[in-house]
Amino acid sequence: MTEDIRTAGEEQDVEVERELAWRAASVGLAALDVDDAELVHSWRSDPVVAHQMGIWPRSLTAVRERIERDIEDDDRDDFLIVPPGGTPVGYVGLTGQNIVNGTAQVELMLDARHRGHGHATAALDAVVDLAFGELPMYRVTAETHTDNAPALAVLARSGFTPEGISRAACLHRGRRHDLAVFALLRPEWEELDRPRAWDA
Description:
Layout: E1 2-6, E2 15-23, E3 28-31, H1 37-44, H2 47-53, H3 60-71, E4 77-82, E5 90-98, E6 103-110, H4 119-133, E7 139-145, H5 149-157, E8 161-172, E9 175-185, H6 186-191
Parallel strand pairs: 6-7
Antiparallel strand pairs: 1-2, 2-3, 3-4, 4-5, 5-6, 7-9, 8-9
């Protein structure tokens, strides 16, 4: 299945055909590639995204090198979030995959300009369906700042259960932040009353 998507910022006029690796009802997931470094760099450099995720700006070269390393890592799958219209609006990853224990973590970053349209929830649901429907995961976890209201809402909508707080676990902008720890177990996913990604 292929779809035309933009591979850089909205100002770029050249479109290339990219294969969608996974689909959900309202978004597709395209495998992250080194050529996407400029786009990811622009999202990471947004002060809203940086604050809510607790990250700091990195050079474009550093982002490109990080993507190159991650592509070689068999314990992770990284995707661009592609809604109808074809312009990527964020990133979602299934990282730290441990096939023996059946565990993994999710990471999600959405362009601040594209929030409030359901893309984050759709992407999270899609990658969770990948973890439980195609991979042998039993437990998927996520962490976010306790004051990151958008992320907390997305995790709740996708069926994740809060498990606790890692106190003062993140240093960002000169102060300590608590991290909320969430998890979704396979039996809980099986009970979710929503279409699966492969039904899209």
